[in-house]
Structures are given as C-alpha cells and as structure tokens.
Specification:
Rossmann fold, eight-stranded mixed sheet, three-stranded antiparallel sheet
C-alpha cells in the first residue's frame, strides 16, 4: 500500500495512506495526540517506577520515543514491547521530524537506535529503557500477565475492524497484569462495548485536539 510523509497541524510529521485516506497519527497534531493519549492518560496514570509496556501498532516509533523521553524526566525504568506487522522503511524514518519538533537533538542516536535495532530481540537502548520490536499480527499475540500498560494504536476500525474486536481485546486483557490499563485514541461505542465484554472497566476521557473523547480501560481482576 502506498505511503507518504505529511505534516500535521502541530508541525510534526506522520505517514498518510492515500488508498484509505488514513494516517498513522491525528492530522490535528501527531505529537500532541501521542502526548495526550499515551503519556498523559496512560504512562502518567501508572505510579510504579518500573513499567512493562506493550504498544499495539509500533508504526513510526513516535510513541516509543516520547515514552523514552518521559522516562528520563520521571526516572522510570521501561521495558517496551512494540508490535507491528508492516514496519516503516528506513527511507520513511529519515523523513520524520520528531527529534527536531520535540527539541531532542541530544537524543538523535536514541531515535536512530529505536529504528535500527534488530526485530525479535531485546535491546538496552538506555540504562533505564529496554526495547523489543516484534513483527507480528495482533491476532497472534499470546502474552499473559506481562504488562502494566498497553498503548492501543491500531488503524481505525472503519478500515481494519478486525483489530477492534472482542477477540483482540480478550488478548489485551490477558496480556495485562491486574490493575493494568489500556489507552486508545478511539471513542467508538463498539470499541467500548468490546472492551467491557472482556472485563475492562472503561472510562471515557477528554480526547486529544480534534477528538472530543478517548477510552481508557482498567483490568481490576483476573
């Protein structure tokens, strides 16, 4: 499928899929969306100093890089697992402007390592940050009781409804430890109901720029 780099409203880049008229991030601001949905409503909701984190849709690595930057500020130890069936290319990565837009030029080597490290292996990116990238379809995830936090950042349900089903959220529920949370930019009623059906307690939260609401689910019991 054709992919092209475009600039979103906050000046940060994303990847656009013209065949679907779909984007990897919000056109209202890729960085703004990532910080609001995954950091403010996700990472900052976990009080533990050591966090195992699963990202569903590793994509451009933006969520991973911002999480790394936040981990340095908050002195958190992160074990980050990113799942992606169709990795972006080195050429696409070279056109992303996240390092400059985040004013993180001193961390350029970290951003490069996030993308250059081998898939299917655990890498120590920094003294407090480990990364494992798995080239995997979401339906093949079998983790159980491994994570405190899930970033659910799949393409929208209108294009890939099979990624937002009860079967997929059952896998997410199993992958979390008790009191773990899942955050997603989606606020669709069908998504909320699927999350509730597998056992999540679901909250509607204020959404990022351009979206009124988003969802956060908590696993209170096994």
């Amino acid at each position: 499928m054709k992919r092209e780099i475009v600039i979103t409203a906050d000046g940060s880049s994303t990847i656009h899929l013209p065949d679907w008229n779909e984007n990897y991030h919000s056109t209202h601001g890729a960085i703004q969306e990532a910080k609001h949905v995954f950091i403010s409503k996700g990472l900052e909701a976990i009080s533990a100093s050591e966090i195992s984190l699963l990202e569903i849709g590793f994509g451009t690595g933006l969520n991973c890089f911002i999480t790394f930057l936040e981990a340095q500020k908050k002195e958190k130890l992160i074990n980050y697992v990113g799942v992606e069936a169709f990795p972006v290319t080195k050429e696409e990565v070279s056109k992303l402007n996240y390092v400059s837009e985040l004013k993180a030029k001193q961390q350029q080597l970290v951003f490069d390592e996030i993308h250059n490290c081998h898939w299917e292996e655990k890498h120590q990116i920094h003294s407090n940050f480990w990364l494992t990238k798995r080239k995997q379809f979401f339906k093949d995830i079998v983790d159980e009781n491994q994570f405190e936090l899930i970033y659910f950042d799949a393409f929208g349900a209108e294009h890939q409804p099979e990624l937002w089903t009860v079967a997929i959220f059952k896998k997410m529920f199993k992958a979390l430890r008790v009191n773990g949370i899942l955050v997603t930019y989606s606020a669709k009623g069908s998504v909320r109901r699927a999350m509730q059906e597998v056992g999540f307690t679901v909250e509607r939260l204020d959404g990022p720029p351009g979206k009124r609401e988003m969802l956060r689910g908590t696993k209170y019991s096994a």
